[in-house]
Amino acid sequence: MNASHSSRSALALLKTTLEVAVGLLVLGVVFCVAANVFGRFVLNYSYAWAEELSRVLFIWLVLLGAGLGSIDREHVAVTYFQDKAPAPLRKLFALLCIAVIYIVCVCILFGFRDQLSGFTSATPMLQIPRSVLYSAMPVMAVLTLIANTLALVKLLRGTAS
Fold it and tell me: Rounded CA gap, 78 and 154, in Å?
């Protein structure tokens, strides 16, 4: 029981950390876009750094948000046929979905490893390495794998909703 409590605490800490990170990313994107809008319409000057930084922050925002959505099981799903199926078939559909998600996440991780081995460019203005930009994908994949593993455990224990 103690291990279960500590794993729930770790998951709660992970979710809280992700929520704070996503919130800070939203603030960063809003600041960059607002600075660029102010510069363009009031000062008649466009900040190149603001557009580039807002793009980087937005990519991380979307992918961390997707990982957080996976952990919270808040993704959009079409469940019409699964809901109409008998109970044993529903469990099979759920297992199939979990298997597909595992395959996609593993492909993302292997693809990132291969992509990273030959990637050395940086963003034009801020010189942020593209590897930093694209590393949001494996982070999202790992978060999704964690969420998927939790869903699999719940399903196999029979506590999945």
Answer: 20
